[in-house]
Write a structure and sequence with these properties.
Oligomer: homodimer
Strand content of chain A: 15-25%
Mean pLDDT of chain A: 91
Low-confidence stretches of chain A: 1-5
Strand order of the largest sheet of chain A: 3-2-1-4-6-5
Largest sheet of chain A: 6 strands, mixed
Largest interface: A-B, 44 and 43 residues
Structural class of chain A: alpha/beta
């Protein structure tokens, strides 16, 4: 009796702490203003099942409403239909409306000439926005966790994303919100187990050929051993701080860009002397923005920004950049658009 | 004949490219102004042996002089004396003066009540500065590579160093310079092998209980597999960009600190309304600086900065911080020093 009472207390405290943490995330980032109608994206995995249960618990006392669930069937995995059935059954049990949709992602990818992953992402988000409109929901809640945050940070890091920011996943982007972004996957599973709630496992999550899976199953465990502790918290914090830093530097650079750059028939002119006086984080971002405008959607890398900086400083007479060329003419850094 | 000629050409191009890269690092960061007399820190490992050979090659045509070498014997490893002999022999062969010194690091650590690693670092740098004075050298060159840069970035990341910067290793700090910071260890070893130059291996580098070794031998190889390529370049670039961003934000925050903070008998007063108007990267850095002054050398974490921010925003009446307390009094954020 005593033992089970003890466990009960501990469990109660654990659940209370988890709910409080999610509520803090929601409040700090103003994810659910009063009266918000939320659609929850439900894959059937532990993260999105926990998200559904937690938001259902928080809704009555926190001024928002669960408008319903949305499940997107990618028709990619062998378990796709089992997952759909699981989500339908959960919706019935929770007495929540559910929208189920899906496309053949492989077909979609071929038609749009994009990769499978990007195709799945686009099709999924398009479906979620349609479902939100159907259920008259203002915002879409997605079950990204602190673990996803750490994984995304490391993925961006190794892909050389230093220039466009290591910031990782935003708690909010448009009408998409991520209330679990400060919660850990292990805690969410513990919560589900305590509540007697099952979930479906995604078998493709174990394929180490997928970079994210390798980071999840190999890199992070080794980092935890190096630190002698769970590192997702430290990494997610660093991601949050990097995001804040670069978000503000981006805003500042946007203002400086407006002051320094002039559109021209040939592309863009930038006042080279004034650019030189800016601090280097602003210089790089102003040039990145300019090169992106001239490049017309082409990928701009750090090496292009650095060569444009070299031209601005008079170290080289000119440099080819994606979709154009950079030259220094009478104190102006000229970004020429190639036809 | 043809084959060996081909290899010779390739080798020549490889060496030329490596030397050019190091020269570019030296020039970009102005590591060796004209007439600089350099002391090279030589452990006998591949990095410092390559550094010695490369700087000796670059000196005549790049306006600096190799004043000599310095080897510090930590008396910690079983191979310590073998390493010292190796360095002495190399100095003789290269006809360069060498200063050899050492202390019993374990004894020093006990006397100063610090860890072995920190004791080794302090004793080594003190020795290098004395040696530089002896050889009338202005700067001390250290063989840190891009790999060290990537390892340091990951170490800082998992230790939660987001607040004080993920920037990693600086190309220059005071009179210490790092000309190899953009070169890879593998390239340096290839260079030494091509030149028929041996080096000593540090057996302690394989002990996985050491966090840096685990990052080197386990984390980075897994990251390379996830990326399908060597990731040290991407990580080192991100470290460089993060360093530039945070260096400038630090300078900006220092200026804002001078405008917003006033020393007081009880500690420090900060204008809360003016602080509120600053962007969050500046707010955090201003508070970090203030809390550090009041904390008098105690470790300040993100959680302390966040609770001080909470007090400033009126979310809580006050908060205890290391070595003091933060309160809001008549529009002033008061940082009280505890006696």
């Amino acid at each position: 009796m005593f033992g089970s009472l003890g466990v009960g207390c501990w469990e109660f405290e654990f659940v209370t702490a988890l709910l409080q943490q999610v509520r803090r995330t929601i409040r700090r980032h103003d994810l659910c203003p009063a009266g918000t109608r939320l659609l929850v994206a439900l894959s059937g995995g532990s993260d999105s099942v926990a998200l559904t249960l937690i938001l259902r618990e928080l809704a009555p006392t926190n001024g928002f409403v669960l408008a319903g669930l949305a499940h997107f069937n990618h028709h990619l995995r062998p378990t796709a239909d089992r997952d759909e059935q699981f989500c339908r059954a959960l919706a019935v049990r929770l007495e929540l409306p559910i929208v189920v949709g899906g496309v053949d992602v492989r077909e979609y990818a071929d038609a749009e000439r994009i990769g499978i992953e990007e195709a799945a992402r686009r099709a999924r988000y398009a479906f979620l926005h349609r479902s939100a409109a159907d259920l008259k929901a203002d915002r879409i809640a997605i079950g990204h966790t602190r673990d996803d945050q750490a994984e995304t940070f490391l993925l961006k890091l190794i892909r050389g994303a230093g220039l466009t920011g290591l910031g990782g996943i935003y708690p909010q982007r448009g009408d998409v919100i991520r209330p679990l972004i400060e919660a850990s996957r292990a805690e969410l599973r513990e919560y589900l187990e305590g509540a007697g709630q099952t979930w479906v496992e995604d078998d493709t999550n174990t394929d180490l050929k997928n970079p994210r899976n390798r980071i999840r199953h190999r890199v992070l465990p080794e980092l935890n051993l190096a630190a002698g502790a769970d590192t997702t918290n430290a990494i997610a914090r660093a991601a949050g701080l990097a995001r804040d830093d670069s978000q503000w530097l981006d805003e500042l650079a946007d203002r400086r860009f407006s002051a320094l750059a002039r559109e021209a028939p040939h592309g863009l002119d930038i006042d080279a002397a004034a650019l030189e006086e800016e601090p280097s984080p602003v210089q790089r971002r102003v040039l990145l923005k300019g090169l992106r405008m001239v490049g017309n959607g082409r990928e701009i890398g750090l090496e292009h920004v650095e060569s444009a900086l070299g031209v601005a400083a008079g170290l080289s007479g000119g440099a080819d950049v994606p979709g154009g060329r950079v030259e220094l003419r009478r104190g102006k850094l000229v970004l020429l658009r190639r036809e």
